[in-house]
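Researcher: Quick test of sequence recovery. Tokens follow.
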């Protein structure tokens, strides 16, 4: 479902599986993250707008107070609720205000009921009492990121940029951040993406899906693997049907999807979730222009490492002490590698063997 510009789309009658909800939360912290997701989905209304839409109530002493004061809401969303779980009245008013803010108030009553149920279950300490959307609760939350490479160094601006893009409130509230990292072979695309993903992993409590697409021509085998990891036992044979099911399962989840070493847009498109709560990072040698033009991917072109970063990569791969002792040899290697981290790692390996340099932490 496309959120929110009134009049821009046909809305389904039962949007429960499209609007980010609280199902599956086992702790107050997760409930807050879902509230953040709901606000994002509804177009990131400002705190002021939420306060106005939240209205005010009269207290017993005759004074009027805002239901959604900006400072309280801001503190709650940042996880600084005094009692962990925010007050039910605040949650209900927040949900209502988010939906009103994007012209979807007709769903407000149903959505509020959904949050009230979840809030009550949490307040009663009934972990897991919330309607599970995980089809097989016995399965662990998918955490599929491969291990980060040892001795990763440099790329600070790119790591910061990925962080910024992935946190940016969406211009288009219907779609979550989609990032495309491109560059020549061995330049460090996969290493960078995996490094960043590990650093930000905690922001995606519903899981991390990872696929190396270099060996797969089509998307279907990957969707099948993802759906199984998400707890589905029976998966459609038809790619389009499987892709629709995949989007349904991911709707409303705070999930990170890493599509590494992609070769074509055709391979990637069926793996794109439709929910603004999901973040996708794609790495590819080729600049997948269709992903940028049609899907609004944010492109990052990775180029050669600066000499400074190359030196850092080399010293991390070698042995920092050695690298500093023999700066001349290292400088030659940096020039020889031409800013390619892969070349630097290969050169470092030969140096380790030739000169019997003790390995990192060996
Ligand atoms: N920032 C880095 N610090 C240290 N080593 C790195 C760094 N980036 C890449 N490497 C090393 O270079 C090798 C190649 O990197 P990587 O596989 O990420 O390249 P790639 O751009 O994804 O290549 P391909 O196009 O073949 O997928 C990695 O195995 C890793 O050892
Ligand atoms: Mg790669």
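Model:
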């Amino acid at each position: 479902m496309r959120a929110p510009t009134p009049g821009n789309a046909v809305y389904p009658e039962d949007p429960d599986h499209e609007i980010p909800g609280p199902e599956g939360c086992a702790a107050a912290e997760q409930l807050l993250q879902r509230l953040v997701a709901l606000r994002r989905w509804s177009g990131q209304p400002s705190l002021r707008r939420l306060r106005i839409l939240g209205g005010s109530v009269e207290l017993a002493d005759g004074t009027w107070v805002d239901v959604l004061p900006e400072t309280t809401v801001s503190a709650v969303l940042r996880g600084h609720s005094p009692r962990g779980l925010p007050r039910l009245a605040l949650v209900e008013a927040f949900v209502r205000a988010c939906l009103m803010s994007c012209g979807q108030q007709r769903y407000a009553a149903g959505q509020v009921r959904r949050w009230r149920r979840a809030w009550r279950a949490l307040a009663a300490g009934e972990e897991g009492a919330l309607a599970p959307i995980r089809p097989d609760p016995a399965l662990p939350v998918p955490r599929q990121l491969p291990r980060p490479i040892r001795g990763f160094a440099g790329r600070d601006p790119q790591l910061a940029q990925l962080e910024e893009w992935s946190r940016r409130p969406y211009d288009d509230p219907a779609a979550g951040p989609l990032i495309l990292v491109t560059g020549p072979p061995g330049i460090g695309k996969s290493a960078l993406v995996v490094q960043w993903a590990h650093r930000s992993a905690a922001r995606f409590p519903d899981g991390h899906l990872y696929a190396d697409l270099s060996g797969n021509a089509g998307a279907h085998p990957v969707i099948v693997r993802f759906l199984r990891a998400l707890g589905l036992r029976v998966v459609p044979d038809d790619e389009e049907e499987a892709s629709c099911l995949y989007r349904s399962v991911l709707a409303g989840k705070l999930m990170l999807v890493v599509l590494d070493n992609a070769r074509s847009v055709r391979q990637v498109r069926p793996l794109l979730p439709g929910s603004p709560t999901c973040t996708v990072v794609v790495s590819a040698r080729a600049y997948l222009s269709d992903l940028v033009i049609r899907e609004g991917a944010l492109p990052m072109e990775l180029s050669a490492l600066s000499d400074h970063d190359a030196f850092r990569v080399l010293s991390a791969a070698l042995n920092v002490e050695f690298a500093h002792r023999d700066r001349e040899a290292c400088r030659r290697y940096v020039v020889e590698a031409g800013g390619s981290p892969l070349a630097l790692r290969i050169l470092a390996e030969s140096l380790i063997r030739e000169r019997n340099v003790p390995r990192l932490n060996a």
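The CA atoms of residues 20 and 123 lie 20 Å apart.
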